[in-house]
C-alpha cells in the first residue's frame, strides 16, 4: 500500500529520523573525580540503522558502559545529544522501545526464575509474552530454580529474557555473553540473529574481538572515549590501512634510535618492540622494510597482513 502524504507527515513527526534507531551527536561525558575531571566519553558521533547488529568494541575503560548508560537515559551527557527512534532515551525507555541487558545488578537472588520473569512482565503489562520469551531464551527448564542457584550464564539468559519482555525495537547488551559457555554463546547469538531478521536492532558492547567478528556485520571500535573506526567488521583489519612489518634488530646497537627513526616513516600507526623484534604497522610497508634492511641493519624480515587482533591493538594503542 502506498503511503499518503498525511501518513508520511505523521510518521516523520513521530520519528524525524526514519530508518535510524539510535543517533549520538557530539556526545561527551565528564566525571568529576578527586583527581580532577575525567573525560570518559570524549565526543562520539554515531548512528545505528534499524535492523542492524552492531558491535561496540573497545578495551577496558574505553567508555562503552558510560555510553550505554547515556543511551538508556540512566545518566545525561555533559554535552551533545542522543536520540532513540527520534525520541529522548528516557521517552524511548518509557515507550518500551529500548531495553538492555546490563553487566551489573538487576536480579533478586531469592526469587525463582519464573517469579522474576512474572514480576517484570507485570511491570511492563506483558504477561502474555512470558511463555514465548522464556522459551526463546531457553530458560523454561529453569523455571523453578532460585536465581541464587543459577550459573552466571543462566543469569545472563534470564536478564536477556527480562530485556525482551517489553518487545523492544532496540536492544542494548553490555558484555551479554559473559559467563556463558561456547554452546550457550552460539544459542544466544542464534536468537539475536533471528530477532534482527525480524527487525529488532541490536547494539552490543564487547571486548572480545571474536565476538564482534562472529556476530556483527558492523563494528564501531572505541578507545579513550572516541570512535577509532566504524565499518564492516570484516574490513576492520584493514582499517589500520596496511600491513605489519617485523624484523630483528641488530644486537650490537641500542634499539631506541631505530624505533625513533621508524616512527618518522609516513603514516605509521604503531611501532612496537618485543625483545629485539620490532613490528611496524601502517600502510607504507615497503618504506618500513627498506629502512629496516638498509638503514638499520635488521634481519629476518617478515611482512604480514594484519590480523583483526593486530588491527585492534594498533588502533587502540596508537592513541
Ligand atoms: N561514575 C564514574 N565516576 C568516575 N569515573 C568513572 C565513572 N564511571 C566510569 N568512569 C571512568 O570512565 C572511563 C570509562 O569507563 P567505562 O566503564 O565507560 O568503560 P568500559 O569501556 O565500559 O570498560 P569495561 O570494558 O571495563 O566495562 C574509565 O576510566 C572509568 O574509570
TrEMBL record:
Alphabetized SMART domains for the sequence: AAA
Membrane association type: Peripheral membrane protein
Pfam family, one: ABC_tran
Broad class of the protein's primary localization: membrane
Compartment annotation: Cell membrane
Molecular function terms from GO: ATP binding
Protein name: ABC-2 type transport system ATP-binding protein
Annotated source species: Paeniglutamicibacter kerguelensis
Source species taxonomy: Bacteria, Bacillati, Actinomycetota, Actinomycetes, Micrococcales
